[in-house]
Amino acid sequence: MNIRESLEQWEKEYLSPYAMLSMDSKGRLRPEEQCDIRPVFQRDRDRIIHSKSFRRLKDKTQVFLTPEGDHYRTRLTHTLEVSQTARTIAKALQLNEDLVEAIALGHDLGHTPFGHAGERALNRVCTYGFKHNEQSVRTVDLLEKDGQGINLTMEVRDGILNHQTSSMPASLEGKIVRLADKIAYIHHDMDDAVRGGILRESDVPEEISSVIGYTCGQRLDFFIHNIVTNSRGKNDICMSPEAAQAMQKMREFMFRNVYKNPIAKGQENKAESLIITLYEYYMSHTEKLPDFLNRLYLNGEPIEKIVCDYIASMTDRFAIAQYQEIYIPKTWHG
């Protein structure tokens, strides 16, 4: 028995009967030989961490566009906070922590520059529409490694695809990430809003705070404990009705006061215009696209999707630089 098989046996003996076991994975899009050390979901996690799209998350907006200060969240720090919250819940419930971590680390790989402003812009102009969860799967399936993809397991792909509110993953591990994503942004977006002077902790209505806590740390602790308590021994991941209602009210509060706040989001119209302008430019100048994307286009991928692939892969900084390169006159030196 090699190391991987020993770890798979440990999962079988220790994890909950409701856990997704590595040995029971449905496999990959392209069959490949197993690693002798790592179970499949650990291997997926490693592939995501070593991917270019994961590294680019460090320069992509979470909520505040190009904030001044070193402590505001980026898409990468959001991803890490989702992962940590999800792993805490999974470990407490004896579910598959490797699967949870892989889904969490991969769930936003296809996110656009400038956060949801970039997503809205591409969804508006692309005839196929654009959703970042679908783009994340497309990134791992097709775009990584210059068009080869990183060939993740079906379970990780399902969790990435269905982490949105409107969807439901097939595994309990995927359901954990789906909730951890919401917990993370309620926690850290509020923290960033306080740091940026947009809100004060005391602005949260008493009917919410009295249930989930009066500080970011208290709220994070409350949601984790509530999910663990209400999901233990069940083939489901759930909160108490009181907690679920309070979470919904907190999300509504955040949308009113942060996500649609004219001070916090005042630059988003500019960001959307920039993304749309780049989209129109590359639709007319396909020769400017990277070689591997042109190969995908020649192999039958729609040009609209290829242009979205390129723009969605950009960091905030790179998108601005491309716009400046294309449209801003340079100083002439005689």
Mean pLDDT across all amino acids:
94
Identify the CATH class of the domain at 38-266: Mainly Alpha
> CATH homologous superfamily name of the domain at 38-266?
Hypothetical protein af1432
Biggest sheet overview: none
Q: Which percent range describes the beta-strand content?
A: under 5%
Number of strands: 0
Query: Would you give the CATH topology of the domain at 38-266?
Result: Hypothetical protein af1432
What do these coordinates show?
This protein is mostly helical and 334 residues long. It contains 16 helices and no strands. Helix 2 (40-49) runs parallel beside helix 5, helix 4 packs parallel to helix 11 (216-231) and helix 8 (154-161) packs across helix 9 (172-195). The longest helix is centred in the middle third of the chain and has 24 residues, at 172-195. The model has no long low-confidence stretch (mean pLDDT 94).
